[in-house]
Design a protein that fits this description.
Blueprint lengths: L26 E5 L4 E5 L8 E8 L2 E8 L3 E3 L8 E10 L2 E2 L3 E6 L10 E9 L2 E8 L9 E7 L5 E6 L3 E4 L7 E10 L3 E2 L3 E6 L9 E7 L4 E6 L10 E8 L3 E6 L9 E5 L7 E10 L2 E2 L3 E6 L4
Antiparallel strand pairs: 1-2, 2-5, 3-4, 3-6, 6-7, 6-8, 9-10, 10-13, 11-12, 11-14, 14-15, 14-16, 17-18, 18-21, 19-20, 19-22, 22-23, 22-24
Length: about 300
């Protein structure tokens, strides 16, 4: 079903000797942000007018005619996709049609704020979702999400959905997310900010860099797990060789996490020890790092 708002069909008779003129197709069919459909006119025939067919998908909705190479379509609902076909008409002859599919622009005063957003953690991923103000929610073609970490280093993500799964965020990290809708091709709506603290996780294992031994001591130099991988505060390194020793080495944590040295003393000369090393942070204890060491003879 479609409505024909106005159609002008005319036939001009020039007599038996008249030359048949078939108009050339129009060119450069465009819809601008001011709701005007315009095109480069057909100029090869006299008294040319233009028929404009407006479709939703394959359903014809309107037919218009005009003598001008443009048509205002501000009567169409904002942010809906329409298909426009323009044909030149002259001397009862129609040109081939030129088609354009386009979204009707959102009004300049459209309220495209993010009305709400929240963040949660699901199976190790961070789940961010949001909603645009209801009246114009369908106008958002995509969304721009900017992720700021504790160092304020931004990372942009674009999505056509109103949610986003974000992987590889750092445990105990402080993040801020900004979300905004994108409409009318590249126009962006207001920014909505939301802050979130990533849940903590136990530390991973340290890396053993050096071992120095004497007859009565063993020094172990460690690279602690990187701050960029886990920002939960490390409180201590624990070394067990039960029943011979149980040493706790307090850690003054910092983002740099420099080489950390643990020295076991006094030990028996010429003795073999099986050590179990763990890292303790504010969330708990890491897995065990086993290592065997041998002291020197006297």
């Amino acid at each position: 079903m479609f409505r024909i708002l106005s159609v002008l069909v005319f036939v001009v008779f020039h007599g038996a000797s008249a030359q048949l003129c078939i108009p050339n197709p129009v060119a450069n069919l465009t819809l601008d942000v001011n709701y005007t459909l315009y095109w480069q006119p057909s100029t090869n025939c006299p008294e040319t007018l233009y028929l404009i067919y407006i479709h939703i998908e394959d359903d014809l909705q309107f037919i218009y005619n005009t003598e001008q190479p443009y048509l205002d379509v501000d009567f169409l609902p904002a942010c809906e996709r329409f298909y426009f076909e323009v044909r030149a008409f002259s001397n009862s002859e129609l040109s081939d049609g030129v088609r354009l599919g386009a979204y009707i622009p959102a009004p300049s005063d459209a309220d495209l704020r993010i009305s709400w957003a929240d963040v949660s953690t699901q199976e190790g991923s961070t789940f961010l979702r949001w909603q645009v103000t209801e009246k114009y929610a369908h106008c958002a073609r995509s969304f721009r999400v900017v992720i700021y970490d504790s160092d304020n280093l931004p990372r942009d993500v674009y999505t056509e959905r109103n949610f986003l799964f974000i992987n590889n965020l750092v445990p105990c990290g402080q993040y801020q997310f900004s979300v905004r809708a994108i409409y009318n091709l590249a126009t962006e709506g207001p920014i909505h900010f939301i802050s979130y603290s990533i849940p903590g996780a136990n530390s991973s294992l340290p890396v053993l860099e050096r071992v120095n031994t004497t007859a009565t001591s063993v020094s172990l130099s460690w690279t602690l797990p990187s701050y960029s991988e886990n920002r939960c505060r490390i409180t201590s390194v624990v070394i067990d060789a039960l029943p011979f020793l149980h040493d706790i080495f307090p850690v003054v944590d910092s983002p740099e996490r420099p080489l950390f040295v643990t020295t076991l003393s006094p030990l028996e000369p010429d003795s073999f020890y099986v050590l179990r090393v763990t890292v303790v942070n504010t969330e708990g204890t890491s897995d065990t790092f086993p290592i065997g060491v041998q002291t020197l003879p006297n």
